Amino acid sequence: MASALEKADSGSFHRRSDDEKVKADALEYAPLDGIADPDAGLSEEERAAHDRTLLWKLDLKLIPWLSFLYLISFLDRTNIGNAKIDGLQEDLGMTNGQYNATLSIFFISYSVFEPLTNVLLKKLRPSIFLPLIMLMWGICMTTMGLVHNFSGLMAARWWLGVAEAGLFPGVNYYLSCWYKRSEFGIRAAIFFSAAAIAGSFGGLLAAAIAQMDGIGGKPGWAWIFILEGLATILVGVVSYWMVHDFPDEAKFLSPDDRARVIRRLRADQQSSAEHESFKMTYFWSSVKDWKTWAFAVIYMGCDGSLYAFSLFLPTIINQLGYKSTTANLLSVPPYVAAAIMTVFIGWLADRTRQRGLCNIGVSFLGIAGFSMLLGSSKPGVQYAGTFLGAIGIYPCIANTISWASNNVEGVYKRGVTLGFVIGWGNLNGVVASNIYRGKDKPKFTLGHAVVLAYLATFLLGGSIVTRVMLAWENKKRQRGDRDAWIEGKGQQEIEMLGDRRPDFIYTL
């Protein structure tokens, strides 16, 4: 979209009137790098019809398969919780501390490598990078079913974290390069709802696979890892043909559609679909931006809670008095509720552009749920608390990523920022892995209390502070207080400022 600031003849900048902005919107349809506007001469209604057709094509080509990949990813990292209640810990002779260590080591390697992965994604292309890491983590998953001791499981979990590190930040960054900010939230929510579906599907799948106990001399929990690992390898191979590259190179789009995608992103003050060479300037720009760390704090609040919930839900339900298979099956309904709520909040946040308020409202549900788990000893009340906990955590993951993505512009800066935000959030999986201790059963007071503190302090508190600061900065930009940032700069230099452009208004 044309800048909200125009350079006057004197070389200074002035704030445009609404009429001037309407006229400037016509620049959206200017030729792109010598490519003529494919919709030249069409009415606004006809242009809108082309946009709807294009969005439908993108949704069908991108969202289903990427969501399926994340379902597999989340299933592979959390099925150890299902394996535990089927005898993993006893068969390998592990103490409670050693089991928690196998959870923690995944998050350490996962978090360390996440900030680097989006740069690799951009350089290697999605159609190469994503299938490659899937093959790697599929092999790691399979070997988890072949280990005989604590050391073997630790090694497999470490490399699983390394291999999986590129998927979640990579796909969120990738999708942000296709859609406008007002369209991204619902797609990110549908993509992330696969995690909730994985939770429900994982319980059903684990209950079924565990019946293979004794086949080939392997216990049921080992078959959970082996079969799911082999399935991941197969999907990774197929993904080479199913994952598409960025808009300027995507082969499933015609030249006209590629021009439309790039034009739509430019109209939304984005340049993410276009080529940009990596420079360390973009890395440091992200590191020095307060928004990177503000969103990292918010994300740790929901992500730390997410992993505590997903890794230990079967155990929590098991401690309510249900057997292992029943506990796995009873873990399904809370995840179904979480998936529905995640998609709804994604739609609502896109519609209202109030991502911060959505985070704030949903966090109260999670706080209520864990308060019930902490304060009641009645199985019915505690099970109801798992529902509120699920719907109070899962929607905030996708919404926070969308919120961060909406407010960071620049191809590599956005990729680095999402890597930092998601990496820091996942590092808190180390905490989540160690708060539900065996000696605390059946109430798990420490675990529930820590998750409650995460939700109240980091998710709720962080969302409130960040929203206030973004609103404060928007008011400064709208008053013209930031116009000095672009004095003396040409149009290309102004565009390179990304979200530091004075006309870039933050999403609240």
UniProtKB/TrEMBL annotation:
The keyword Manganese does not apply. Its main location: membrane. It is found in: Membrane. It holds the Pfam family MFS_1. Keywords: Membrane, Transmembrane, Transmembrane helix, Transport. The keyword Nuclease does not apply. Residues 62-508 form the Major facilitator superfamily (MFS) profile domain. It comes from the Eukaryota. The chain crosses the membrane at residues 100-121, 128-150, 156-176, 188-209, 221-243, 293-317, 329-349, 356-375, 381-404, 416-436, 448-472. GO terms for cellular component: membrane. It is a multi-pass membrane protein. GO terms for molecular function: transmembrane transporter activity. This is Retrograde regulation protein 2. It comes from Clohesyomyces aquaticus.
